[in-house]
Amino acid sequence: MTKTEISFVPHSDMELEDVSVVLAHKNLIGNNHLGEATALLEQENYQKGYRAALFRSIEQKLQTIQLHLLNKGFKEIEEYISDTEPTPEEIGERAFWVSPY
Which of 42, 18, 37 is nearest to 27 (CA)? Predict the structure, then answer.
């Protein structure tokens, strides 16, 4: 990932000369011509906004985190939640009894 792919210049800083590029890009995206839309930005050397590489990187990191969390073993719950005081059989090996207000 290059610095231009992760740097961000807000669209609110748009100059009048950029309007035609942004509108053409928006139309290409709307017509599902993603490759042409990317090529347009590269051809016009338009550096405002984020690039797809940044979003792909974030997506890959989220998928890695998701797999880690799904494969992580669950810790045994050490508390028993009940409105009434539990019997020794109900609380079993748990260390705490929690009574909601």
Answer: 37
